[in-house]
């Protein structure tokens, strides 16, 4: 599979002026977004840490914008008491009607579980949260978190296991990220007004600085230039339906690890669920 994927991308590359990114490096591919040297790139750009103290969090963003592709990041979350902190890996375009694909890790008190909150915005509208507990302690080791984005669907993966699929439902009038190029972001910030037990547990600043580790960023993605429309043919060679294996994984994950699913929030949507919730939800 891997080799046919590479061949597929090479053939597209040769056939057009479209540029593809393969691999990734924190020095060459990213700029520091905020927090100055609290974003600490090391090891020739293969690893990076983000720190937060009382005066600031930190974050980085790619120089390039991408339109479709697969993005992998290995992350090791803040150990011990990380309540109130939010560590993120996400894609976002700019502007009022922006698109965004989010992985946000909500910290917790020592020994209590972090939550991985996933969401996406299309044409400026978000509010599509599905939140998960993880089946491992994400502060002990690096794990790989991935966003696989093509015009048909977005798949979020943890250690290569698909946990969420967002289908393109433009055919029933639901906007989907298909035209706005996005940058890749990694950030660490103070979210204690909502992150931990709905905002009840605040950051203990005596434990600062809080530090999260990142390494082995990888983008197999189409770099959107002025000729960004040439990314339209890019679908990563995966323009097929979901296979049985992926459906099986999703079913298992959703039966065991989901903390919150907007498509099951009967209080919030007492007057009717969003259209995409009515079609086969997450598989
Ligand atoms: C990151 O790179 C630095 C410098 O080479 C090294 O000391 C550190 O152990 C690395 N961290 C990880 C998590 O690989
Ligand atoms: C995007 O939102 C704007 C309003 O903010 C609306 O006018 C436009 O039709 C929307 N586009 C799509 C594709 O839904
Ligand atoms: C933190 O731990 C509490 C208690 O186990 C749990 O209810 C909550 O979901 C955990 N995660 C967050 C981010 O609040």
UniProtKB/TrEMBL annotation:
It comes from the Eukaryota. Pfam families: Glyco_hydro_16, XET_C. Contains at least one intrachain disulfide bond essential for its enzymatic activity. GO terms for cellular component: apoplast; plant-type cell wall. Residues 1-23 form the signal peptide. GO terms for biological process: cell wall organization; plant-type secondary cell wall biogenesis; xyloglucan metabolic process. Belongs to the glycosyl hydrolase 16 family. This is Xyloglucan endotransglucosylase/hydrolase. The lineage of its organism: Eukaryota, Viridiplantae, Streptophyta, Embryophyta, Tracheophyta.
């Amino acid at each position: 599979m891997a080799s046919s994927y590479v061949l597929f991308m090479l053939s597209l590359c040769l056939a057009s002026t479209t540029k593809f990114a393969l691999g990734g490096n924190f020095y060459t591919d990213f700029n520091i977004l905020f927090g100055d040297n609290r974003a600490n790139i090391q090891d020739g750009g293969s690893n990076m840490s983000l720190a937060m103290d009382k005066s600031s969090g930190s974050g980085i963003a790619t120089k390039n914008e991408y339109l479709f592709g697969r993005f992998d990041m290995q992350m090791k979350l803040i150990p011990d008491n990380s309540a109130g902190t939010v560590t993120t890996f996400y894609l976002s375009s700019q502007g009022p009607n922006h698109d965004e694909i989010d992985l946000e890790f909500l910290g917790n008190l020592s020994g209590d579980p972090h939550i991985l909150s996933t969401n996406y915005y299309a044409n400026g509208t978000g509010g599509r949260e599905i939140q998960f507990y993880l089946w491992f302690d994400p502060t002990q080791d690096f794990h790989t978190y991935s966003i696989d984005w093509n015009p048909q669907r977005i798949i979020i993966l943890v250690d290569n296991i698909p946990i969420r699929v967002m289908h393109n439902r433009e055919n029933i009038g639901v906007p989907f990220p298909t035209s706005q190029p996005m940058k890749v972001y990694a950030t660490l910030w103070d979210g204690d007004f909502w992150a931990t037990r709905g905002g009840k547990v605040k950051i203990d600043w005596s434990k600062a600085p809080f530090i999260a580790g990142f390494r082995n960023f990888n983008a197999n993605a189409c770099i959107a230039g002025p000729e960004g429309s040439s990314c339209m043919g890019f679908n990563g060679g995966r323009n097929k339906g979901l296979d049985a294996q992926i459906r099986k994984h999703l079913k298992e994950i959703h039966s065991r690890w989901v903390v919150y699913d907007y498509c099951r929030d009967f209080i919030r949507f007492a007057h009717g669920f969003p259209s995409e919730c009515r079609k086969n939800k997450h598989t």
